[in-house]
Amino acid sequence: EGALSEIEASTLVPGDLVFMRLGDKVPADIYIVKSSELQVDNSSLTGESEPQERGPENIQTNPLEATNLVFNGTNCVSGKGYGIVIRTGDSTVLGQIAGLTSSADDRPSPLSLEISKFVKIISTVAILSAIIFFIVGQVINNDIAFSINFAIGMFAAWIPEGLPATVTMLLTFAAKRLSKRNVLVKDLKGVDTLGAITMLATDKTGTLTKNQMTLTYLWTNGNLYSASITSDKNAEPITDTSIFGVSDCIQASALCSSVKFDKTDVPVAKRNIIGDATEAGLTRFAATRLDDYDNYLVDHAKVFEVPFNSTNKWMLTINKVQHETGIHKLLIKGAPERILRLCSSIMYNNTVEPLSDAEKAKFTESYEYMASKGHRVIAVAKSDLPADKYPEGYVFDKKQQNYPMGDYTFVGLVSLEDPPKHGVREAVGRLRTAGIQVIMVTGDHPLTAEAIGRKINLILGETKSEVAKRTGRPVESIGEDEYDAVVIHGEELATMTDEDWDQIFHKPEVIFARTSPKNKLEIVTRAQSLGHIVGVTGDGVNDSPALKQSDLGIAMNVSGSDVSKEAASMILLDDNFASITNGIEEGRLIFENLKKSIKYTVSHSVPEAIPQILYILVPFPVIIGALQIISIDLGFELFNSLSFAWEPSEAPESLMKLVPRNPVTMRSIMQLRERNERHAFEIDPETNKPYPKSTMKKIVDTIKGPFTRLFWQDVTEKKHGDVLIDKDLMSYSYLEVGLIMTIGCFFSWALALNYRGISLNMAKTMTKDGYFKDNSPTYNENGTEITQKQQVQYAREASSAYYLAALSMAIVYLPFLNNIFNTSYTLSPIWWLPSIAFGVLLLIYYSGRILFLRKFRPIQMNPDIRGLQMYPTIWSTRGNSESQTAISGLGRRVGQLDAAQTENAEYQGTKPDQSPH
């Protein structure tokens, strides 16, 4: 109606005219028609760490980079503007990203696939055995009830009933341990998946970096200073804020600013700064160097301001600052080239002298040094306004421009960056040592992404262009084997072939920059198509589709968006990237312990199944029935198997040096593609997803599976790497320990019968003649008389001895359970001895087996990676007074780190000053 009014964002429709200003959240996708110094923070949507200028003009073809569009969910951090709503709700870019997240299918975890495969095999064996033994039981006894009970016993013997509970409980305990290390597991299977990942695709802004611009270097008075503790030999630490030039940089950072605070009753370090990210970084720097920041602003009040704009590329303020010739000081900051052109003098060699070509050369050298590290560089200048021309009460006017616009004194350069979080460099190094390929997928600029990558051990080698520059050859002539690192722009992905993707993922060091949410989703999908188990970390809305598609999505709790946390399977509660290494270590340990637990659980199948077979072949009395088997598997053995949850690693120092259990190689890729070809008929070519099946169809296919060639091709396919249930585990459980346990149990059973005067041959004869039953006649032969009651009693004692060898003592010696489980509490403790003897034999066998395997089948370790920098990232700037206190012990620490850096640089073949500071 021609008037400005406030309405609910949900009531906006396309065509509405919207006004935005500093501090507002963009309510829809909007086309800008008018603006004044409008800047928006797109970091949650695109990953760009710096604010983006927006206005009516645009030359970009990528919608996410269009300078005349602002998107729903982003924040206005500077200026103001008017725009027309073009999309709302689910139609916005934010809504489309949410749609990508909801459309992604949940992928089965590696643990689910392996256990599912094992269950299919063992279920097939169990069902066939049950059917066969039911038929045999009918032939022998012609008793349907007996045959059913017999078939159930055989089925129960083969099925490890305690396996699901054991796996679930072990994963639960591991998840609980991870929660104490600030890792929240939303899906239990994620614990194992984290230990199995072969690739970690990570966002940059807010995940690897703080998403907080931080001042790093100052160049003033001809010297380069570091704002934080550093091992950079080219920079001196700021130990005194009164140093000539440094104090002026601090003053300009505090006064030449337009930031606002959400509240002022807490220290500056804890305030939420509203405004441009660069100005916020300068404000934090100044606040930690000034004794009383708030009073400093009051004492040096701003009387005039020219805001930053994209035309001038600078910001100017005039403040009340007492100096030798007056009370007003002009401060200006902005693009270095623009500021230098406005200056006629420079602070150099502890004095102010005319700006000469020599100083300009020094300026250029320092500017390029800072920019080469991926920093954002800003110049600062000043002018002391004389009182005779600008007295108290003088009114400065922008239109009249009644203030100097030149002849400034150049103060210096300051550089800012979004620094890596503390511990990220060491964490990336540990991940690479563990054989995990770490790639960066960001929406930020390629040069910025590469600069950060080199600081955090993600990139150590040369890119194709760097090799060309070093060798003086054309880029096109550089072979694939001559470089290790690649930095790919998101716009290149649309034209890449399958061969291009293969080449990229075979490089050890990869960065994808300027990527959209769809690009990130495609990158994850492509990596998975090669057999990678992909973990994705991120905190923004733009990361959520990739988080959902990945095998394990890891979101940030503090800085993460609600959409990203919903899409993820795991959340880092403290946003500490290094916690991922703890999770991977825990995942690898739980995999080791799961194998041990499954070995223990499955090994009981043989001594449970053999008695059923002996009943048919010999026959011997039914030594152990279905109820006893279930009581062992779900009762006593379950608790014993859970003890492996607390089992430490046999080689803890090498746990994070092991090759991933399913490494991606050319051989594994070819095998995966052959498997995909076999199952091509199940895939919809339009969606590239399996055809949907009804529940009945799934059941029918599951039943038919074991009788098809395709099923056994998949089952018998040779596996590369370490799988949960492999030939070694099957051999150990069924052929080795299973047989030893069977012999031990059978020996105890036979000994108990013999003690009662029943030999094995007699037991065989009596079973054939129908003895050992509740209605059996008295056995009387060769002077031996055994009544029906004694037959049952002796058979129960023998079964108890067998049971005892299976650690089921409670069922044996609790009288009220004897009738239920066909045991006898009268069993003499002397029958413990065979069980103990065979237990000792098992211990000796297992220990000898371990020593043999370690000698003849040593564990495969990852080769060392040259050039990893694993010393602490001490250059990470603290946001409070600790950074001042830490300077006191700087000398000795920097000396140590200089030596470490020099040694590390020599190892890489680079100069020390080229290493990340």
UniProtKB/TrEMBL annotation:
PROSITE patterns: ATPASE_E1_E2. One of its GO terms (biological process) is sodium ion export across plasma membrane. It is a multi-pass membrane protein. The chain crosses the membrane at residues 118-140, 146-171, 613-632, 732-755, 801-818, 830-852. Keywords: ATP-binding, Cell membrane, Membrane, Nucleotide-binding, Translocase, Transmembrane, Transmembrane helix. It is found in: Cell membrane. It comes from the Eukaryota. Residues 2-101 form the P-type ATPase A domain. This is P-type ATPase A domain-containing protein. It comes from Smittium megazygosporum. The lineage of its organism: Eukaryota, Fungi, Fungi incertae sedis, Zoopagomycota, Kickxellomycotina.
